[in-house]
Task: inverse folding
């Protein structure tokens, strides 16, 4: 199943609509972030996309910081986590110095769909562990470790 977001139960992270149309969400507890990092469809890609693969090691000063795979909230929808903070999937009109990129998890979703439609994939798809890795493993350069 293709899944771009990790959805929380609405009572776990409450969001409310502000009078001017934006939403205000409570910051997720560390427990909810850990739950996402362990159970999200991109659990094996956490830390990839910026700096060393498999390690959350980038900060706001790194150009690829918005593309580091982790549990970003809220980027998908209310009461949910997304795999990247900012990418072409969430903002196709990216301007400035932000890279135009889908993020590793979204790339994997695209590669899986391409493989389903065509029977094979190559290129960047070879480095994404298309079938995912077992819980507790990381996808490093296309190999589950």
Result:
């Amino acid at each position: 199943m293709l899944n771009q977001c990790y959805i929380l139960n609405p009572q776990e992270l409450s969001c409310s609509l502000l009078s001017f149309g934006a939403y205000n969400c409570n910051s997720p507890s560390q427990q909810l972030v850990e739950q996402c990092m362990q159970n999200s469809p991109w659990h094996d890609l956490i830390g990839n996309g910026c700096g060393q693969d498999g390690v959350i090691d980038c900060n706001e000063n790194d150009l690829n910081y918005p593309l580091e795979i982790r549990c970003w909230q809220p980027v998908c929808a209310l009461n949910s986590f997304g795999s990247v903070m900012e990418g072409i999937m969430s903002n196709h009109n990216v301007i400035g110095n932000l890279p135009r990129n889908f993020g590793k998890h979204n790339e994997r979703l695209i590669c899986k769909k391409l493989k389903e439609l065509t029977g094979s994939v190559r290129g960047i798809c070879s480095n994404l562990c298309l079938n995912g890795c077992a819980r507790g493993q990381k996808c490093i350069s296309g190999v589950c470790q």
